[in-house]
Amino acid sequence: MPSPTIKLSAPSTREFWEIDVLFEDEHLLALSKPACLLTSPDRYDPHRPNLMRLLHDGIAAAKPWAASRGLSYLSNAHRLDFETTGILLMAKSKPTLVALAALFGENRPRKTYSALVSGCPAEDRFVIDAPLGQHPTQIGLMRVDPKRGKQSRTEFEVVERFDRYSWMKCHPITGRTHQIRVHLQRAGYSICGDSLYGGEPLLLSRLKPRYELKDGRVERPLIQTVALHAEELSFDHPMTGVSVDIRAPWPKDLTVALKYLRRHQA
Questions:
Q1: Residue 244's pLDDT is what?
Q2: Is 181 within 8 Å of 106 (Cβ atoms)?
Q3: Could you tell me the domains of the chain?
Q4: Is the pTM of this model over 0.70?
Q5: DSSP string of the chain?
């Protein structure tokens, strides 16, 4: 049977990834994308490692994970941000990709993200419906743009409240770049670690009473990246019509951060 993990490496940067397979059949492959790996090539720096190129290189080289699956084609129907972890769904053939792209184009898959957020919303559920467009002067940033932005809608649900933080489930109805991050900023909140949109690092010293740091040490954030995880993806299979529900376990740092929030901020 094919391996439940896919091993990838980028010789140019000496980086290595062991990526979990979350779902697979003859048409689809869903992987758990790690943090700090691009989904696809960066238009401004095409030499940076990205998941799709690494996968394509592995297929071309007939790596064991690709040969055992008989893979000759693999293409993604959506993307995750560089620092975002979780479910990335791909098609194993061009006809499947066309059908899958139609599903995402019509915003039919149900996407659920988990986020650790600074601040506590008054309501348990709220919706942000605000058009998004590229920032006119800062490359790579998005902003709310009522005149030229594209329609964007996100539903938010507070799962657990802490003293100064919240664990939230985010359901992006549309699929714009940085949509959840910008919509939370619009609502007056920010994702922990999201420096692009006003998020501060989550530090244990801000959670734990009488925290002491040893001499000569520099405190590191509990989460080194944006605390956003693509946790669940539900849709009707584009080729069989069967209902599919894919889940991605939380990465270790996010799990540890939630444990400390519950211990010191409940």
A1: 98
A2: no
A3: 1-106 (3.30.2350.10), 108-266 (3.30.2350.10)
A4: yes
A5: ---SEEEEEETTTTEEEEEEEEEE-SSEEEEEEPSS-BSS--SS-TTS-BHHHHHHHHHHTT-HHHHTTT-S--EESS---SS-EEEEEEESSHHHHHHHHHHHHTT-SEEEEEEEEES--SSSEEEEE--EEE-SSSTT-EEE-TTTPBP-EEEEEEEEE-SSEEEEEEEESS--TTHHHHHHHHTT-EETT-GGGTPPP--GGGTSTT----TT-----SSSS--EEEEEEEEE-TTT--EEEEE-PPPHHHHHHHHHHHHH--
| C-alpha to C-alpha distances, 129 to 110, 229, 251, 259, nearest whole angstrom | 17, 21, 29, 32
| pLDDT of res. 1 | 60
**pLDDT value at position 139?**
84
Which residues in the chain come in under a pLDDT of 70?
1
∠ CA 109-119-132, nearest 5°, is 45
Residues forming the active site: 81
**What is the token pair recorded at 171?**
């359901």
CA quadruple 180, 185, 188, 192: dihedral, nearest 10: 80
Alpha-carbon distance values, 249 to 37, 141, 203, 246 (Å)? 18, 28, 23, 10
pLDDT of residue 47: 80
Cβ-in-10-Å burial (0-12, 13-18, 19+) of 174 comes to middle
Say if strands 165-172 and 153-161 run parallel, antiparallel, or are unpaired: antiparallel
